[in-house]
Amino acid sequence: MNKVGIHRLAFYTSHYYLDLAILANARGIEVNKFYIGLGQSKMAVPAPDEDIVTLAANAAKRALNDINVNEIDTILFATESGIDQSKAAGVYVKSLLGLPNRVRVIELKQACYGATAALQFATAMVAKQPHKKILVLAADVARYGFNTGGESSQGCGAIAMLITANPSILAIEPETGLYTDDVMDFWRPNYRSEALVEGHYSTKIYLHALEQTWQHYQEESGRNFKDHDYFCYHTPVPRLVEKAHQTLLKIAGELPVESNKTHEQLKPILYYGRETGNSYSAALYISLISLLDNTAEELSHKRIGFYSYGSGCVAEFFSGVVQPEYRQVLATEFHRQHLASRQALTYQEYEAFYSYQLPTNGGECFTPKHETGDFRLAGIKEHKRIYKLVNQPEILSKETKAAISKALSPGKLILSGEHAVNFGKPVLAMAIDRYAQTTIASHDPEQVTFNLLDFNYKNSFTINTLRALKRRVKEKYKEFLAGKVGIREVLQQPFELTQYAVVNWLDHMNTKFNRGLDIHTTSSIPVGCGMGSSAASVLSVLKAITRFHDMSWDREQYYTIAKEIEQLQHGKSSGIDVYISLHGGCVYFKEGQAEPRPLPTVPLFLVNTGTPAATTGESVSHVLEHFGQDSIWQTFETVTNIMDKALQANDLPEVQSAIRDNHRLLTKIEVVPAKVQRFITEIEAQGAAAKISGAGAVTGDQAGALLVVTEQVEPIKQLCHQYGYDLLEVKAVERGLHAL
After folding, report:
1. What does the pLDDT average to over 53-78?
2. For the whole model, what pTM was predicted?
3. Rounded to an integer, what distance in angstroms lies between the CA atom of residue 640 and that of residue 343?
4. Residues 11, 157: contact at Cβ < 8 Å?
5. Average of pLDDT values for 114-122?
């Protein structure tokens, strides 16, 4: 009888992840509750244009890279994150991969167990017809309620397995142990997008089902614990797997093993899971891939025991034997490079990704473009999901091209001179590789629709409604200038700045409103953190709408209008945010005049301490009220000039010295919270230098962006983990506002 099993195997997860230290800091939780209590360090977070189809297609593309796909007879797709109540997700994957039409495609569901059912069905089908090849896919997005107990157990991932006779990786053995019981430990009704879970009860059922399946498996196979060389378990969180292994040792009559030894034994199996978080149906097979990729020992002819569990509940214990040629066909380098190239999210970026919602009414939607591998969910139109190949050029008609306009504008970091610029003193600033993007398309001629993805906001307005908003905002701003209200009262919501920019442009250009607008905005610039998000957003809107109407503005027009609008957010604008986002590069800026500077070459890093409790306008007003007549501003100018010369000379010690002096000045004007001061003190103890980059904060513990200058990255990374921050390399960019 031919062996049947896994011939090719690959996995894929999102390009984005959240370090659980960041989540712990945001939730006020000790980080070791996650790092040690769950055994989890990171969780993958899908981008808005990523779902089970794109994840599975990316995994399958790698698994099938040397396979004649015309030999594939069946696609079995296991998931509990289904995207349609009727159509199988695998049909989309079949289309994206260009697989033959003479193929059957089925979707399977039973919580996290589905992939094992697909594997067993596939092996039975191949045993019946050994010349057939079957593609098994499993993909899920593990999603729990925001700021709930299960939030730290999220993740996403996909696996692709090609099942054949005479497999190259793993031969599946026929004996299995089964267990099913009607329990409610984890479930997700059709009307919910997040799962419900009884955590402690689910753990109890998971371990009980392990005992039941092991006993049944022993009866069927006659094998005992020592007949197996390794064990792979379904992995909701790594710590549960360690408990499961201890439980199996006990029920198998083996001597107990100390917890630290269990941790070491399971380390190669859990390595990928610790990096990606929960992936439901794919999790067990990601642990198999992790074992194969990360075990130095030769595994040929080794038997692996598998425990598969799906809440509700269905469980199975089975085994497989590693084949001699397995190393030759593993995708080890692909997996390692994929994980190493991922991008860490700030807390604000995680919240924006989590909050993003596709329309549920079938309305047209274009998803913001992120890094999603070779495939992405481009949007929804007429209730239909639209998938695209990332590297395939989009062919648009002349009419469609004319009806779509896109613009991009970078954020900024201040290198020296915060607040001093508002008193006529110089500031050094540079544009960075974080962007606000606006896309404008034709729409209902009576409406302007705003799809503001970072605010999870979508609404439509008539032009008269927008003009009423404009009048209200202008009146409030007059009251602010008269000292009757604070700057926070000018705009009721931050996204009103975008709405104001649109209607202000239409009125400024005296444009007849004869066709509607569908406006999509997204940004990788953290909001309210002193990185110029308001200026970049306003400029991208102005550029996109100008281009949409086949008009042309010079830079002076963009600068004047954008600065006027930005003041509605900040009260008094120096113009530096607008100038940098408009022109790009690095500049020495004083009293509205800019002198270009070379892009800095010293090692610069960004730490986002979180959105300040006070707005930029409130911090600026506080400094103006309490330090407006202070002589400290001359000292600020001296430090900025020292910084300017040091950067041009690439003198790292002098740059760090100027950064430290700048930090002390900012502390004196009360815009550096006590927690951030402590953090910077510890950074300085490591020989590095840091300061806030932006307005800072006059209340709370968060100060927005910090600029860090250091050559010794690892100690600063460790320090950031302790505080729940993330250290990101900063790249200056020469190009400012531009159309796409």
Report:
1. 94
2. 0.63
3. 32
4. yes
5. 98
Residues 724 and 671 in one domain: yes
Tokens for 229, please give them.
């060389």
**Do 164 and 307 reside in the same domain of the chain?**
yes
Q: Are the C-beta atoms of residues 562 and 538 closer than 8 Å to each other? A: yes
| CA–CA dist 685, 570 (Å, integer) | 34
How far is the first Cα of the chain from the last one, in angstroms, to the nearest whole number? 60
Residues contacting residue 539 through CB under 8 Å, at least 6 positions apart: 407, 409, 436, 558, 562, 578, 581, 582, 737
Mean pLDDT for the stretch of residues 204-214:
97
Task: Average the pLDDT over 143-160 and give the result.
Answer: 93
CB half-sphere exposure, 362, CA atoms < 13 A: 3
Domain of 231 in residue numbering reads as 4-348
Same domain, 587 and 618: no
For 474-482, which contacts have Cβ atoms below 8 Å and span 24 or more sequence positions?
A: 477/567, 477/568, 480/571
CA triple 502-500-541, angle to 5 deg? 40
Would you state the pLDDT for residue 550? Answer: 81
Structural domain count, the chain: 3
Catalytic residues: 80, 112, 234
Contact call for residues 103 and 73 (beta carbons, < 8 A): yes
Q: Are 111 and 313 in contact (CB under 8 A)?
A: yes
Task: Name the token pair of 57.
Answer: 């297609």
Q: What is the CATH number of the domain that holds 544?
A: 3.30.230.10
Query: From CA 209, how far away is CA 180, in angstroms rounded?
Result: 8
